[in-house]
Amino acid sequence: MSDKHLDIITIGESLIEFSTNQKFEDAECLHKYYGGDSLVVAVAASRLKSKVGFITCLGNDAFKDYLVKSWQSEGLDISCVSTVEDNNGIYLVSRAAGEDKEFIYYRKKIAPAKVSIENINEDYIKSANIVYASGITQSLSIQARESVQKAFTIAKENGVLTAYDPNFSATLTTKDAAKEKFDDILPLIDILFINDKNDIKHLLELDSVENAAKILCDRGIHNIVIKSSKNNGYYVVYNQNVTFVPYYTNNVLDTTSTGDTFNGAYLHAIAKSYTPVEAAKIAAIAAGLQAQGIGAIKSIPYYDEVYNIYKSEA
User: Fold this and answer.
1) Mean pLDDT for the stretch of residues 126-147
2) Which of 65, 133, 179, 185 could serve as a FRET partner for 310 with CA atoms 20 to 30 Å apart?
3) Whether CATH 3.30.365.10 fits 6-313
4) Is residue 279 a contact partner of residue 270, using CB atoms and an 8 Å limit?
């Protein structure tokens, strides 16, 4: 790809993460970190030595300086981050052994919901190889949804690839609202990440990977990754050819944001001119390593960890 200023730009929210390895009712201490789906994508790509920009609105609260320092330490370009007077969002996660994970979100009227078309600088979007956003970004607010539309429109008009993940979760939005946002952005998508557990079932209202691949190809998307928890791997659909890439490992400890780590690693590899199948193999390794640790971002692997494995298996 062309040698632009940035490999990837992601648009979305950052949240403060408080986590515990006990049930909430038993926990006396919660550990502070940070997360957010588009931010995980950004960090995953950056740790693989991609140049990554992150667009969001930052809350002017007690966590502001912590977040800025954290993003800078990850090497993210945050020149298009703006500070607003609202608070930063928070989520709490409990990962008690032998129990289902528990999540609590505080995401109403938070700073990232203020992301608007004012944050989308045309020259900045044109400076990237790929622009990424998700259904979660769109669901933050009407103006956030408009910002994704504007960024993708600028990208399409200027030869910048667009990448999107519906990331549908019934705990964050309704099926109908998510479907409407997906249908709205679909004509502007170049690279699509979708899963068989939630997205194909609820947004496409289909029951098979094969039908989803055909319909999405027919609608003009030529680079699709279908994540299949049912079959423990990824179906890579490129120019209507389908290749299955298995999970790197089934020995997992915590799957929080593993799909977002996959997305970031995949986009990193595409920006570095790997083929979609090669990119999926690199991303599967990154996601597998991340899932062997705890937390959304703490356990995202770095370049040498991923590429030593990839080169040994090539």
Assistant:
1) 97
2) 133
3) no
4) yes
Question: What's the pLDDT score for residue 2?
Answer: 45
Residue 286 near residue 301, CB atoms below 8 Å: yes
In angstroms, what CA-CA distances link 33 with 17, 90, 192?
5, 10, 28
* Global confidence as pTM: 0.95
* pLDDT above 90 for 279: yes
* pLDDT confidence band for 3 (50 / 70 / 90): low
Contacts for 136 with CB less than 8 Å, ≥ 6 apart: 12, 13, 37, 38, 167, 169, 172, 173
Alpha-carbon Rg for the chain, nearest whole angstrom, is 18
Helix (H) or strand (E) holding 94: strand 89-94
**Average pLDDT score, the chain:** 94
297 token code pair: 């971002």
- Asked if 148 and 97 count as a contact pair (C-beta separation under 8 A), the reply is no
Angle between the 258-271 and 276-290 helix axes, to the nearest 10 degrees?
140
| pLDDT at 4 > cutoff 80 | no
For the chain, which residues make up each domain, given as ranges? 6-313
Rounded alpha-carbon distances, angstroms, from residue 84 to 43, 87, 110, 112, 140: 23, 8, 10, 9, 15
> How much is the pLDDT for 137?
96
Q: Which residues contact 135 (CB under 8 A, 6 or more apart)?
A: 164, 165, 166, 167, 168, 173, 178, 181, 182
Question: What is the β-pairing status of strands 31-35 and 52-55?
Answer: unpaired
Asked if the model's pLDDT at residue 286 lies above 90, the reply is yes
* Alpha-carbon gap, residue 81 to 57, rounded angstroms: 6
